[in-house]
């Protein structure tokens, strides 16, 4: 979706739009650390996030990769910066075609800074000379597909600021404004400003833009002060005016990083309050890849609450333009949403309203991608799961500890710790794991809970949500047979079971689709975002069984043969079982395990 449309929709509803900017880190660990922080920040539902292109185009490939992951794996509307520096038109086309193919619809068009070692920007042969050229090129080549944002400079572009005074001349400032108007007239739809610390300067810039006929939204760029040296370096590079009172406040505390950060949060909060009171309903936070200050500012403003992170669906829908109507998914990948997205990237249509109506015919094959993990996550898994295993009971204990919250990671989950709803049934889960039913996915029954419930709610306020109790686990064939026999006394239970080699045991038809979660909302049709179906379960089982080896056994050193052999034995002999209690009002899914 175009960011301009999201901002306008928020304005019509009287809501404030906020967004975050990130830059590509230099190391692989830095990239994974960025995504860890981004995941926490995206949970607060920013209107969009953007990723910079890098000085001189040096991070082009990395920026494209990060933008793709942001849009499709982080599920946040993403705007990618694109510059003219060291970029022949062929490279610009490659970048635009890549993000379009990845479902990204938003670009911030910039001239870019001079390459390292050069004082001034020089147009390369076969390239473009300025942001205006880039805006015109994007519009001529791609029509209205992209939402194009451009940069605005409340104090004028650094190139026209005089070194003697630190200010632009009136003629230089006016020329910069007129150039901004040309960028908008050429197809720019949104202005994001350079950082500033004098709010009155921003207000003057707003008035001046309106005076010359610029009517599009102008988003103020807010950069929290996180440390003194970084602040001086950034304001020096951008030639940003530092008000005398700001310098006076920072000078006594400049060597105390905690005090500087606390002051930076206070200052940015007060700036934002003044901006919002002026009638501006958008804020763009330059995070410098740090989350705490940006989150603290938004909390101070009352725009977010840690305890009220809302979900439009039980899972985060990718912001990819091709998946905007997707609202149904199989439950099996509930804890591995990135894997699900990667295995459905090739679909032409995504389920909307009913799973069976528009299901794509095939999932993507398993690849190394499904088993890649950030290094930090691998270390946590290593510490919690690469323990000596002498018996099946040791394996059962790992699963039980996970369900009781004593472990924070699982080879079968991309998510951190237990989900809030799991804590409703954590003791029952812990007990059945010790009996040899090794659970990897579950949800409690819910009968008409308010949709803004912090544990099971989704879809926003004003509705009611429902769900059937669900369990997914591994167990021996002997335990499965006992479960099947006992299920005859539980007519509301349906099950599907399969082992690694494909032996199938079930009491549902091969084309049956069971709605597990649904919601009722004012002036809407019933939404049913989570289902269980045999075709998807058979695809998922290959991934689920493969995790025994590629997700768990690989954590052990080569010499730890006995633990690996035990995991391989389980992988080769156990069944994967999906169990649903269709009586979400009076059912007792755990009752069937009491005498097993």
UniProtKB/TrEMBL annotation:
Transmembrane segments: none annotated. Pfam families: MTHFR, MTHFR_C. The keyword NAD applies. One of its GO terms (biological process) is methionine biosynthetic process. GO terms for molecular function: FAD binding; methylenetetrahydrofolate reductase (NADH) activity. CDD domains: MTHFR. It catalyses: (6S)-5-methyl-5,6,7,8-tetrahydrofolate + NAD(+) = (6R)-5,10-methylene-5,6,7,8-tetrahydrofolate + NADH + H(+). Pathway: One-carbon metabolism; tetrahydrofolate interconversion. Its cofactor is FAD. Keywords: FAD, Flavoprotein, NAD, Oxidoreductase. GO terms for cellular component: cytosol. Residues 311-585 form the MTHFR SAM-binding regulatory domain. The keyword Coiled coil does not apply. NCBIfam families: fadh2_euk. The probable reversibility of the MTHFR reaction in plants suggests that they can metabolize the methyl group of 5,10-methylenetetrahydrofolate to serine, sugars and starch. Homodimer. Belongs to the methylenetetrahydrofolate reductase family. This is Methylenetetrahydrofolate reductase. The lineage of its organism: Eukaryota, Viridiplantae, Streptophyta, Embryophyta, Tracheophyta.
């Amino acid at each position: 979706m175009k960011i301009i449309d999201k901002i306008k929709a928020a304005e019509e509803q009287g809501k404030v739009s906020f967004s975050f900017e990130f830059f590509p880190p230099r190391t692989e660990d830095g990239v994974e650390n960025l995504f860890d922080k981004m995941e926490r920040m995206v949970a607060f539902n920013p209107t969009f996030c953007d990723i910079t292109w890098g000085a001189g185009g040096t991070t082009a490939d990395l920026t494209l990769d990060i933008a793709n992951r942001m849009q499709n794996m982080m599920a946040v509307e993403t705007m990618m910066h694109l510059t003219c520096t060291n970029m022949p038109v062929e490279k610009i086309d490659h970048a635009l075609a890549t993000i379009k193919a990845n479902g990204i619809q938003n670009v911030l068009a910039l001239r870019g800074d001079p390459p390292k070692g050069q004082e001034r920007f020089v147009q390369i042969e076969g390239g473009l000379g300025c942001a205006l050229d880039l805006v015109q090129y994007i519009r001529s080549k791609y029509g209205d597909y992209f939402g194009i944002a451009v940069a605005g400079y409340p104090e004028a572009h650094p190139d026209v600021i005089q070194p003697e005074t630190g200010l632009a001349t009136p003629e230089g400032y006016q020329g910069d404004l007129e150039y901004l108007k040309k960028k908008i007239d050429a197809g720019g739809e949104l202005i994001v400003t350079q950082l500033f610390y004098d709010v009155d300067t921003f207000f003057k810039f707003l008035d001046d833009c309106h005076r010359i006929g610029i009517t599009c939204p102008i988003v103020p760029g807010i950069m929290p002060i996180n440390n003194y040296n970084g602040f001086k370096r950034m304001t020096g590079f951008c030639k940003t005016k530092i008000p005398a009172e700001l310098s006076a406040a920072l000078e006594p505390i400049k060597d105390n990083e905690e005090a500087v950060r606390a002051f930076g949060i206070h200052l940015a909060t007060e700036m934002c309050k003044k901006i919002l009171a002026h009638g501006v309903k958008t804020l763009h936070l330059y995070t410098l890849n740090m989350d705490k200050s940006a989150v603290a500012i938004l909390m101070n403003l009352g725009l977010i609450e840690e305890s009220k992170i809302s979900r439009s669906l039980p899972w985060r829908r990718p912001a990819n333009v091709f998946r905007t109507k997707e609202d149904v998914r199989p439950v099996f990948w509930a804890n591995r949403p990135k894997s699900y997205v990667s295995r459905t990237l090739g679909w032409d249509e995504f389920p909307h309203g009913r799973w069976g109506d528009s299901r794509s015919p095939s999932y993507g094959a398993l690849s190394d991608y499904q088993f890649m993990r950030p290094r930090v996550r691998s270390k946590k898994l290593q510490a919690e799961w690469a323990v000596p295993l002498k018996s099946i009971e040791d394996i059962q204990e790992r699963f039980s500890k996970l369900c009781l919250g004593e472990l924070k990671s699982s080879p079968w989950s991309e998510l951190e710790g237990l989900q809030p709803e799991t804590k409703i049934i954590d003791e029952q889960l812990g007990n059945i794991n010790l009996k040899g039913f090794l659970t990897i996915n579950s949800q409690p029954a819910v009968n008409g809970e308010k949709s803004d419930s912090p544990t099971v709610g989704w879809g926003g306020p004003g509705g009611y949500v429902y769900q059937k109790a669900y369990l997914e686990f591994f167990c021996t064939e002997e335990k499965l047979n006992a479960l099947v026999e006992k299920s005859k006394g539980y007519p509301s239970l349906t099950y599907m079971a399969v082992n690694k080699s494909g032996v199938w045991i079930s009491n549902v038809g091969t084309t049956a689709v069971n709605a597990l979660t649904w919601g009722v909302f004012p002036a809407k049709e019933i939404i049913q975002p989570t289902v269980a179906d045999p075709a998807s379960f058979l695809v998922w089982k290959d991934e689920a069984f493969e995790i025994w080896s590629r997700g768990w056994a690989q954590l052990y050193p080569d010499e730890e043969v006995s633990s690996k052999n035990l995991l391989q034995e389980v992988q080769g002999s156990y069944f994967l079982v999906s169990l649903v209690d269709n009586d979400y009002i009076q059912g007792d899914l755990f009752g069937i395990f009491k005498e097993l």
